[in-house]
Amino acid sequence: MLRFCGFWFGLALAAQSSGPFAGSPVCGKCHPAQFESQSRSGHAHALSRASAHPLRTTWPLAATEARRAGKFRYRFDGLSLRVDDGADVLAVPMEWAFGAGQQAVTFVSRGDSRFYLEHYLSYFSKLKAFAPTPGQAGLRPSNLAEAAGLLYKIGDPVAGIDGCFECHSTGGLKDLTPAENGVRCEACHGPGAKHAESGGKAPVLNPRRMTASALNDACGRCHRPPASDPAKVDWNFAWNVRHQPVYLSQSACFVKSAGKLSCLTCHAPHEPLATSYDQKCVNCHATRAADCGPRDCAGCHMPRVSPEPPLSFTNHWIGIYRGGAGLKPAR
C-alpha cells in the first residue's frame, strides 16, 4: 500500500516549511472548535503508533491467515505479527499504523538503519479482518523474512518510505520520527510557533486565501497534483483514481469554473468527510437538480472505483457515466 508514496518524497518535503512548529494542542488553545473537529477527522489519524490507534481494540485477536498452501501461517497476538513456517517462528512488532481505518490500516516496522518493513497483513474495516496488503497478495516468499512483508529503503527518493511518513505526519521528521503524528494544523498552515507566541500577529498560511490552482497543487503534494500532461496519464489504471486532484482537473465542472473549483469548494478542511455533497452540487446546478428525484449526485457523477477489493475510491472526474464505466465519463 505504501509503494505509491515514495515518488512524491521531494514534493512532500516542500510542504514542510522552515520555522518552529507549535503542535496542534497549542493551536487548539485559540482555535478550540477547529481543533476539536479536526481531531475527529481521518487526516488527524493518518499515522499513529499501532498501540495508540483508535481502532486498536477492534483488531481481531488470534487472527490467522494461511499463505502459499499453508507453508506460511500468520497469527496476530495484539501488537505483533507472528509468521510460522512449521519449523521456525518470526515475531515482528507492529510499530506504526498508517491510515485512519476508514478503509484500512497498514502496519510498518523498522528493520534496521536501512529499511522499514511494510507488513504483509493490513486491517480492512469493511471486512473487520486482516487480509493481504494491496500489492503483496501475488508475491511468492521463500523464507520467513520475505513472508513478513516488503522492505522499503530509508532515504530512497523514488522507492523509499520517507515520503510516506512525511505525508502522514506534521512538523518534519527526525530519524524518521514525526514531530506530530497525523495530518494536523501545521501540515496545511505551516509552522505556527511564532504565530502563537505573538498572539496571532505573526502570519501563518491561510489556504482559503490561495487561488484554486495553488490550493489544488498544495493538496496534490500528497494526493498528487494535476497532471502537467494528461496524455501521459493512464486513465484506465484503476489505482490512479485515488489521486483526486489529477481527476478533478479533467472535469467539465473544473474547466467551466474558470479555475475557481478547488478541493475546499466541497471539502471542509477541519471536519471529517461528509456523507453527502448534494447541496454543494446544487449550489452550481440548481436547475438540473430540479429534474432529479431523491438525489445522490456523487453516486452517479463521481462513481466509486475498486482497484482491489475491498478498497474503493471516489472518482473525482465529475461527469456523465454510462454502462457501468467508472474510470472515464462519456462526457
Concise synopsis of the structure shown:
The chain has 331 residues and is α+β, with helices and mostly antiparallel strands.
Structure write-up:
The chain contains 14 helices and 15 strands. The chain is α+β, with helices and mostly antiparallel strands. It has two domains: 2-163, no CATH class; 207-314, no CATH class. The strands form four sheets. Strands 1, 6, 7, 8, 9, 10 and 11 form a seven-stranded antiparallel β-sheet that branches. The protein has a four-stranded antiparallel β-sheet with strand order 2-3-4-5. It has a two-stranded antiparallel ribbon with strand order 12-13. α2 (24-30) packs across α3. The longest helix is centred in the middle third of the chain and has 12 residues, at 212-223. The two termini are 31 Å apart.
List keywords for this structure.
seven-stranded antiparallel β-sheet, 14 helices, globular, 331 residues, 15 strands, single chain, disordered N terminus, four-stranded antiparallel β-sheet, alpha+beta, 24% helix
